[in-house]
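anyone else get weird line breaks when pasting these?? whatever heres mine. first is seq + tokens for prot A
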Amino acid sequence: MLGTTVMIPSALVPLMGGSYHDKAIVIQHLLFASGWNTILQTFCGTRLPVVMGGSYAYYIPVLYIIGDSSLQQISDPHERFLQTMQAIQGALIVASIIPIFLGFSKIWGIFSRFFSPLGMAPVVGLAGLGLYNRGFPAVGNCVEIGIPMLLIVIVLSQYLKHIRPVADIPIFERFPILICVTIIWVYSHILTSAGAYKNAPDTTQDSCRTDRAHIISSAPWFRAPYPGQWGPPTFHPGHIFAMMSAVLVSMIESTAAYKAASRLAIATPPPAYVLSRGIGWQGLGILSDALIGTGTASTVLVENVGLLGLTKVGSRRVVEVSAGFMIFFSFLGKFGALFASIPFPIFAGLYCVLFGIVGSVGLSFLQFTNMNSMRNLFITGISLFLGISVPQYFNEFSLFSRHNLPFHTHAGWFNAFFNTIFSSPPTVGLIVAVVLDNTLEVEKSKKDRGMPWWAKFRTFRGDNRNEEFYSLPFNLNRCCPTT
């Protein structure tokens, strides 16, 4: 998850007017918020072993706020950074009400009654496959690092997973990420130190070099994140409305990730009540992101869902301990800046494997449906195709050119809202799949849609294993009845 944690502030903070010091601090804040929100989600939310982290779903609304004319008129870069961050915080604070309300009122669980294995297959599949642009296209920016990373991950995790050189411990199956990142990181540092990129183009140097001295020197040794450090949040109706679209997208993407995580962790599909509870706590996590000032907000990280399948480690305790490490390192700025020196093609090589696993988990839901039905073939095919094709169309346009975006009315908030919605593959997939699945020959196709298998997991009491997987600790279910 360090890839997302570093890349989002690195892209957005300079556009706000922030310095290297500001970027290092925002990375610390996002790492802290990721750890805190992960503990909330595994302890009180869905209880699935998922990791929360910064989401690209907020990219377009944040860019809209950054481009606001009232903020662009501020001549002092640091003051513009502070006021932009305050505007983002205010928009997130209000927008977080949506998942908090939909989650804790259990409306999101009621809406999930329209989900079937057929409808969820393309949505979960697109949660992984829809992120293809963060895979090999980023590997190609530095092939001498990205391709070895991709190949070594496959070799260690698949071909050598049965080799146990130490005390009968499956080292290569459990720790392929740690081993591969260390090897390729050292290799990339040797290339940098040897001057391999001295005369390379700027884009190649940005992707390949490990010497990020400006980030490390700018980062404080110790700094504790706390609410309100950027100043009091500001509230603008247009900013809030634009941010609501990102919150809706992150809810859909997280729902798909919950479904995938439950299968990879060998748990029952999360009942409607558990989905609502998870979305409600995700809303509280977005609120904490806003108060701390991370420049974005949290969602379930798809790459860590794929990691469940790669390592076969589905323990929530492992994830909670990992979240503790996130919080610990967030206080030590130099360590976070050191991690920021990892070239992104290393992460991209991992993403090729991890996102692919999540995509295949989505397609595995089709085993509970009748794929000899032309109705089902039509819904699956058009949902997958449009889920990839429509966001690709929207992402081809310049995010800064109001006149070139597909939605380019005079209302910037309106443009940001709909451009965010249709730039998300799982969201487009859900709109197409769920609408078609619930309007085309519904009564005739219950068995073909996989509803007999799916329906028994809708309620908390529908399967005896639900209590083992999803009950809250310390008998807290008395306070949150599983209705």
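and prot B, same format (seq, then tokens)
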Amino acid sequence: MRNRFSACWSRSMGDGNSIRTLKDFSIPDYILLPGSECKGVTHLPACPVVVFINSKSGGQLGGELLVSYSSLLNKNQVYDLGLNAPDKVLHQLYANLEKLKHNGDNFAAEIQNRLRIIVAGGDGTASWLLGVVSDLQLPHPPPVATVPLGTGNNLPFAFGWGKKNPATDIQSVMSFLSNVKAAKEMKIDSWHIIMRMKAPKEGSCDPVAPLELPHAMHAFNRVSSIDKLNLEGYHTYRGGFWNYFSMGMDAQVSYAFHSERKLHPERFKNQLYNQSAYLKLGCTQGWFMSSLFQSSSRNIAQLTKVKIMKKGQWEDLHIPRSIRSIVCLNLPSFSGGLNPWGKPNRKKSIYRDLTLPFVDDGLFEVVGFRDAWHGLVLLAPNGHGTRLAQASRIRFEFHKAAADCTFMRIDGEPWKQPLPKDDATVVVEISHHGQVSMLATPLCRSKSMQDGDAPSSPSVEHDEDDSSDEELSESSEERRKFGAAETFKYSDGVDMSQIS
């Protein structure tokens, strides 16, 4: 009986090497590949995982991780994102799971309930996977663990997975898998972005992309002409983020970095070089001496009007004229793990109606920076940017400006956005879009409203800094739609058990 089970298990694992296969994490082929059959599989993995790896991230590390994970797990549950689109992979997997469950397979039901996702790559790669998982719209979507394989690694750092590129040997991968098994689930807010631009009388107001758009930006696909989000006479795009949306000088530096890496990929083989190159570009782009290298037309207040939703009404948000970069922050990790919001002083916070920043409270923090020197205050124990507001909804309205473009960035992925040259407009609006599940280690820096030590209602901390740094005293349809993987969404009323 045991020999029959071992033979069946080895066949289901694909490579026949059950000794090196970690059964607590492995998924048999009949779950992964529709049409595969293997009767007698009785070992239920405690922590079944599906692994997505960006082989282009981290120099050669992505490829090395592929080899290590494939040798430890069923090779059919480890995917190279350069070859396999995650929406298609998860579409096939969940369709097969639903079909098996419909046929009374309790093993498949348990696999689905226990399933966890591992994604190895930069912040953009992690954002891409979260968008796909969000679009699954499942009652219990699988939580996601992130392997820090990029340059900044803000998402992994926020949940305790570190920010340094990992080791790729077998023992290190086994250690990471153990941490995934022990990790706790944590809900975080997700944010929907809709961008509308009035169709210009002449020229184009579409996003300029001299580079191929990164996968994380595929969320900004133009909506269809029959979509309810469309308005006559406007081009409409939509997307979303989990960590931050930023615009201004910081996004410009990021855009220059991505452009340089695209042109010379051979130079960007390790994290230390990437970070040094990023710092150098910050200098050459004028981020450290913006008052000398950039005109006042680059100031946020000169580029856009900013409004936030207060008690159901749009109110103007005053942006100091010196601010050249603005960040809408969901997680306490930006620019390589720094926290721009910091910990507000108690008296100032009460006066300005500020709360502790939780990742699941339906609010994001709006922070401004004058230049990179201002950003360096984050390295101090109580350092922070210019706290502008906390909001559940914000709108940027761009009209004719002195500058011809600005730069925007979502979770580390930048693009260059043209600004109106006539009476056209560009509107970017951010609103709450529900929540997704992340996996967090004991080193997690993000705070949840559900934590045992969190107060029953948000309040400010008592022992924070008293910095005198510069501070200041639409429809449900839009919030429902996300659009990160439009082709993957199931239509209302579709019975997944009937999907082949």
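btw re prot B: The chain has a mean pLDDT of 75. The chain is about 30% helix and 20% strand.
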